[in-house]
Design a protein that fits this description.
- By secondary structure, this protein is mainly alpha-helical.
- It has helices at 19-28, 42-80, 83-93, 104-111, 124-127, 133-136, 139-151, 158-161, 166-170, 205-208, 216-240, 248-252, 277-280, and strands spanning 183-186, 198-201.
- A two-stranded antiparallel ribbon has the order 1-2.
- Helix 2 crosses helix 7, helix 2 packs parallel to helix 11 (216-240) and helix 3 packs across helix 11.
- The relative contact order is 0.19.
């Protein structure tokens, strides 16, 4: 998810962008030119990242406890619910403007004309297009997500998560990643709030050899996506387990139940064809 931007003084007005791409954007947005990327300081990046990281780890810990203790109950209850009830729970668990149809990013691009693409409801379909009612009202997608995100730490999904908003970036429907030259973010193998998303200089060989180089702007997008996904899944799991105590203190004492039989996304119908093992099952 590197976006279209590579560095200053490239392409059109400092963008790595062709005249054709710029013309297409303006045609779709009433002649409005896209906003260039921001150039934050390392301190500003850390300041934006810190609260997101804290929420990601808090929600991951809560989700992990619920899945480890009650996954079989989650599966049975969700599978038995009729579609209208599933839809009700999904809408309650997700912030306003949850997309209704499959591939809401494509639909939003077709509808968009003059609205600012980076703000309001117009931005969400491009950031997490897989969170939509059409796909998640089916039985398996939610169960796959609960299992994968609850049983595996957030760093296991950092690389897959960077691809969710690629369509939005390529079509200039969301703001390009912030650019911070000479620094990368460490995600893979970083499993504490103090190390997750840590900035490092690209000449730190001991890090670059083991930690995949993720540009800081892309890293901030990964955090934003993960923050949304974990919050959504925690609220949904709590709603499904409505009569079971799910506050953090109770979950700490919850015994770990045997893991149910594995779920597979590969054999499902076209409605969940967007689910890949890399993104939603065990990494």
């Amino acid at each position: 998810m590197g976006g279209l931007y590579l560095g200053p003084n490239q392409g059109v007005d400092g963008w790595d962008m062709t005249q054709e791409t710029l013309a297409l954007y303006k045609a779709k947005n009433g002649g409005i030119a896209p906003k260039p990327p921001k150039f934050p300081t390392a301190a500003e990046v850390r300041s934006e990242a810190a609260p997101r990281i804290a929420r990601i780890f808090q929600d991951y810990n809560n989700l992990s406890s619920m899945v480890n203790g009650y996954e079989d109950i989650l599966r049975r209850r969700w599978s038995k619910k009729p579609e209208p009830k599933r839809q009700e729970l999904l809408l309650a668990a997700c912030p306003p403007n949850m997309a209704r149809a499959h591939r809401p990013d494509v639909s939003a691009l077709k509808r968009r004309r003059t609205a600012e693409p980076e703000t309001g409801a117009g931005r969400e379909p491009f950031m997490w297009p897989f969170i939509n009612l059409e796909d998640l009202c089916q039985s398996r997608p939610v169960l796959l997500m609960l299992n994968a995100r609850g049983c595996h730490p957030s760093d296991a999904f950092a690389l897959p998560d960077q691809h969710h908003n690629e369509f939005g970036l390529m079509t200039l429907s969301i703001e390009q990643p912030q650019y911070l030259e000479g620094l990368g973010m460490a995600f893979v193998g970083q499993r504490t709030p103090d190390t997750y998303g840590r900035l490092f200089t690209l000449d730190e060989q001991h890090l670059t050899a083991t930690a995949r180089h993720i540009p800081p702007g892309t890293g901030l997008y990964i955090m934003e996506i993960q923050e949304q996904v974990y919050s959504f899944l925690v609220h949904l799991a709590q709603a499904i387990l409505h009569d079971i105590p799910t506050d953090p203190d109770k979950l700490l004492t919850c015994p770990v139940a045997p893991e149910p039989t594995s779920l597979s996304a590969g054999t499902q119908g076209a409605g969940v064809s967007f689910l890949s093992n890399t993104e939603f099952e065990a990494p």
